[in-house]
Amino acid sequence: MAVDRERIAALVRELLEAIGENPDRPGLRQTPARVAESWTEFFGGVGQDAGAPLQHTISVTRGPAPDTLPSGAVMVRDIAFRSMCEHHLLPFRGHAHVAYLPGEEVVGLGALPRVIDILAARPQVQERLGEQIADAIDSALDARGVLVVLDAAHECVTMRGGRQPDASTVTIAARGAYLEPAARAELIALIGARA
Known about the structure:
With 195 residues, this protein is of the alpha+beta class. Helices cover 34% and strands 25% of the residues. The protein folds into 2 domains: 5-42, GTP cyclohydrolase I, N-terminal domain (GTP Cyclohydrolase I, Chain A, domain 1, Orthogonal Bundle), CATH 1.10.286; 57-192, 2-Layer Sandwich (GTP Cyclohydrolase I, domain 2), CATH 3.30.1130. The strands form 2 sheets. The protein has a 5-stranded mixed β-sheet with strand order 5-2-3-6-7, sandwiched between helices. A two-stranded antiparallel ribbon has the order 1-4. It is elongated, with a radius of gyration of 20 Å. The N and C termini lie far apart (44 Å). The mean pLDDT is 91.
């Protein structure tokens, strides 16, 4: 389903009027259209298949480099993401760290950020986002384990309410071998390690 830009623009105009503003004044005249354009980007993942980027897999034993079989986890750290909190429609943004323990199939490393982009471009809560990322990877690959750690700052915490500008939220979603805390300890340590 495509985002209805015209309807969003009309509703933003009405919202501006509801807060006592004049949507026809020079500074606001283009705001409804601008918001509609930005929401098209922010919510472009609604209805998209998050597993699509994971459909092209590579066999680790029959693939292009069978002599380089991974003996441990494959991890991509510091994947920047942004999403919109479904509670206040305020942004949250941060970094995702994703690891999986390959079975017979692996994916190109660029596929993991694309999965995150699709799932984050929906009204979200961070806890569900991490679980959805883990589920997408777990169901698309024959991974023996999946770990997703999200660290994000939420504007509903930093800009309103308690106004904690330095607060961030960390969530962990695990599947398979990484359900066991001892099994994921090394990966958690690697997330914080810097060369």
